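ok posting inputs for the magnesium ion job
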Amino acid sequence: MCTKSAERALVPPYRVQIGVQSFLRAGNAPILPLMSDAVSTDDDDEGAPSSGGGLRKIIHVDMDAFFASVEQRDDPSLRGKPVAVGGAGGRGVVAAASYEARKFGVKSAMPSVTAKRRCPDLIFVRHRFDAYKEASREIRAVFEHHTPHVEPLSLDEAYLDVTEDRLGIGSATRIAQLIRQEIKAKTQLTASAGVSYNKFLAKIASDQNKPDGMCVIRPGEGADFVAQLPIRRFHGVGPKAEEKMKRLGIETGGDLALKDIEFLRANFGSFADYLFRAARGIDLRPVSAHRVRKSVGGERTFSEDKSSGAELRETLEEIIDIVWERIENSKARGRTVTLKVKFTDFQNMTRSQSIGPKPASEWIEDKATFARISRELLSEALPLAMPIRLMGLTLSNLDHGDAAQRPKDNAQLSLL
Ligand code: TTP
Ligand code: MG
Ligand code: MG
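and the output
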């Protein structure tokens, strides 16, 4: 089993939302940090074929300091230097930080002013999405060379099911090594990989020995591995959840595994089932190469809880802007808008409103309609029973057939 390298230990990995597919799902426009795709549990999962009751072989590959590394590759004067991709100005935010910058505590989602304070020599670079998409296409080709079962989570990462690999190599560890070498040869960029028997463990493993590292969690090692993990390493456990868990005496996966499901449900609402399984290293989700999206959306976790109507309305406007941009990029049309909030006690509340269904030609196709419905949903929900820590919007009841036929979409789809 791998231990965390000293180098990586200097760099607290950022946490993502549970079940979140990245806000940067391939082809999406730049989305500001802290926005993540809403969990859409109802996606049609056409997973990799089950291995006949045997264990799957899953690899999670994630590029190192992706945007920043592309910038350093393309501009040799940036190599070996602390680099941040993002706007340097007052409201700018760091999207990606080179590992040199991380030594100073600079990380994704940090306001640029804070980053500059921590690292006065920090060099800010504007993002170049076309370059990141091109590198993303190249790594996808490497994955596809080894298996058809590739589930991209964002431009820089994907799950691969290599239970049966195309080249008949057999060893997932060997395949992961080859993939990292091939990525390096084709793109001059480094990738880290996690190898395990499910997606949850493979993703944690890829983060374990970053950058340019690898970690294998073998069958039989999962529960022990999770037992020693600080709970912040669980995807979805952010600072607030961590604080709450610590108050309840839960510091590690092992502590979590001692709590029964009723206790977890009472304290963490809908988050409980995930926590219960994850604490045991269990995750049965298949790698899903042909995910059909049933919703497009995004959500935002706040650094401070919010409760006043004015604050919530202002936040809603920001989310409308970002989610609408994502809807436009995905070329989706839908009929239903859902507002979701998560209260400070971790309970979720959702409110939905649909247009149509008749006449069938009616869709939410313009931003004004999307914004109007979103605002109505929030107004109906106010005043809230208690402060909230997260707000999100999704568009669902999507029209896939038409979207795929619109000419522009083919260009978009080819990026996926
Ligand atoms: P990540 O894989 O999360 O981060 P990373 O590749 O920069 O660093 P690591 O070595 O830890 O994997 O994200 C991939 C890219 O997505 C990242 O380079 C920039 C972008 N991004 C944002 O724009 N905003 C964010 O908040 C995060 C986390 C990433
Ligand atoms: Mg990365
Ligand atoms: Mg990533």
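notes: The pocket of magnesium ion (ligand 3) is lined by residues 62, 154, 156-157 (CB under 6 Å). The two ends are 33 Å apart (CA to CA).
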